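Key result, reporting period 2: structure in, sequence out.
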């Protein structure tokens, strides 16, 4: 039962979880669920990973928090590891994805102001999701989440995703940056054409704009590389990540390189908790475990295995509009809305998500095996086929 003492921002929540291990969660009645959502792309290493539990306890026993007025070794080590991994120059640590994007937005605005642009504008995409703070909500390209929150911020213009011409047309002398997800997650697992990021990079170079990639969902090995931009031969000016970075421990990061890395100066930005020793020690262990466990490679193998088997099981189903993936960001797009599948799958012991109304989104832990994938395909295919039979 949901307590009335919790502000009702998430609607009715039927399940109460008490324990997790690997790819499974257990509810308060002892039922087991295969978690094909990982807390929305968070627990890439699965639940209660022994090495992450150890990292939390050893740092908790040593030093949990000190102010950003002081250095700590975990923060320095994580910053250096992340910069090596991404070839970026420096990092600002936050506690969440939205806050990482807030830092990116502040970098873009100050970059513009420093150049004498008084009303800097950031181009973002229709269908995007960047968070729930006022600036990231304004950046988000989904009108529904903005209703009731006027006045929104100035300085954002939205164009169609995966449409280079509309980006070019919307550039004005006030444009300072393009903020974009390499793959839109909440918007429906929308995978752009192969050269999209490379073309955006060229546009940014030509017009002196910052290319700011929101890898809060696509980062941390989810798509088969440490970060999705590493599938192409480009580098962003600003890179944000969170979610999988802490495997459930709240931490976010805004990385910058080149001209973007020198924009924020002492006094321009800050956070009490951002980059605290506990969060940083855990995130460093997460990144090392993702590498040592070959999670990026497994994401490619298992993602391809999942969509091959879904294609076989669902061949001939008139409900299927498209099945697609990049690593373990997997989508089964139906020809009709299917919110009921979430509850039906849970009743069968499988946790999934439906986004954009008709897109079944799977974001399982990056450690899943073929047996787990078989279970996901079996349960979900049966539910989709019975939805079709219901007409
Ligand atoms: N950006 C993207 C691409 C996301 O998917 C999300 C969360 O779903 C966010 C930003 C916001 O992250 P958080 O919920 O940690 O603030």
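The corresponding designed sequence is given below.
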């Amino acid at each position: 039962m949901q307590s009335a003492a919790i502000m009702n921002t998430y609607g009715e929540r039927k399940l109460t979880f008490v324990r997790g291990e690997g790819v499974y969660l257990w509810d308060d009645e002892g039922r087991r669920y295969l978690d094909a959502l990982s807390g929305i792309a968070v627990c890439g290493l699965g639940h209660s990973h022994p090495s992450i539990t150890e990292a939390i306890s050893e740092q908790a026993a040593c030093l949990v928090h000190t102010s950003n007025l002081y250095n700590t070794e975990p923060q320095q080590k994580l910053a250096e590891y992340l910069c090596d991994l991404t070839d970026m120059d420096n990092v600002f640590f936050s506690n969440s994805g939205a806050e990482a994007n807030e830092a990116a937005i502040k970098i873009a605005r100050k970059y513009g102001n420093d150049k004498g642009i008084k009303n800097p504008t950031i181009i973002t995409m229709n269908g995007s999701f960047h968070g729930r703070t006022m600036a990231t909500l304004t950046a988000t390209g989904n009108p529904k989440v903005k209703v009731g929150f006027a006045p929104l911020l100035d300085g954002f213009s939205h164009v169609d995703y995966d449409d280079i011409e509309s980006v070019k047309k919307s550039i004005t002398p006030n444009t300072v940056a393009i903020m974009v997800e390499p793959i839109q997650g909440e918007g429906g697992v929308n995978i752009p054409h192969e050269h999209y990021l490379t073309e955006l990079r060229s546009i940014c170079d030509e017009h002196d704009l910052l290319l700011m990639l929101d890898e809060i969902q696509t980062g941390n090995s989810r798509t088969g590389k440490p970060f999705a931009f590493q599938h192409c031969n480009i580098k962003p000016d600003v890179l944000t990540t969170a979610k999988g970075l802490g495997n459930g421990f709240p931490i976010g990061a805004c990385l910058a390189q080149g001209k973007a890395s020198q924009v924020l100066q002492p006094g321009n930005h800050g956070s009490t908790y951002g980059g605290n020793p506990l969060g940083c020690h855990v995130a460093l262990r997460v990144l090392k475990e993702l590498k040592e466990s070959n999670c990026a490679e497994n994401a490619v193998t298992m993602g391809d295995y999942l969509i091959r088997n879904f294609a076989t099981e669902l061949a001939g189903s008139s409900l299927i509009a498209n099945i697609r993936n990049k690593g373990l960001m997997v989508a089964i797009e139906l020809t009709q809305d299917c919110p009921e599948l979430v509850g039906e799958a849970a009743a069968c012991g499988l946790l999934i998500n439906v986004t954009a109304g008709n897109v079944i989104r799977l974001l399982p832990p990056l450690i899943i095996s073929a047996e787990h994938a078989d279970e996901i395909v079996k349960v979900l295919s049966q539910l989709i086929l019975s939805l079709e039979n219901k007409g």
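The mean pLDDT is 97. The radius of gyration is 21 Å. This case is discussed further under Risks and Mitigation.
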